[in-house]
Amino acid sequence: MQPKRRLSIRIAGNTQNPALNTLREKGYRVWIEPDDLNEEEPEFLDWNAEKEGRYFSATDPVELLGLVAMQECRGDDWQQKTDEPDIVCEVIEDCEKLESINALFKLTASGELTQKMGDAHVIENNNAMPDSISKGLPDNLHAFMWVRQPHHIDYYGFETQPETLTWSNSRVVVYADGITVQSWIDFRAFLKWLHQQ
Length: 197
Prior knowledge:
Blueprint: H1 16-25, E1 29-32, H2 34-37, E2 47-51, E3 54-58, H3 61-74, H4 87-110, H5 112-117, E4 120-122, H6 131-134, E5 141-148, E6 153-159, E7 171-176, E8 179-184, H7 187-196
Antiparallel strand pairs: 1-2, 2-3, 4-5, 5-6, 6-7, 7-8
Helix pairs in contact: 1-3
């Protein structure tokens, strides 16, 4: 369950001065170069900040504050470390997973999934399955649906490999009785197949 939203801020014109005031309050000198004002497109300015020999430059005051906040939090060695997670890919992957699951939920709500697949159960993550159902699944199978058959259960999931960056380029497989019995190149191909059933 999402926490109640107490505050929501989006970058806009009304965030520029608060960002610059914050930088000044932190002791930073802020400026734009005079030559930038003579450009034909003055909205594309480089905003600069400096304090104690540390210089920052960005195309927007809020971006500038973000760079300063990053350096203040991480220090002068602010770059990505080899042991740190790739959060950009994680967030994109989470969005792609949500998009995929939402597509299945829409099919479920319309009754189309049951009509096409019978006793199908859409799941949001492997933890949502009872242990009796998920027992024995391979570690690289991220199940999004299981379908009860007369003598076994079909598990539909993303087959991820260490080199796979996102769910959109992960193969979708059907796993049953310890083997892969059917596969699609990606989730879009799986949905196309599902609509054709």
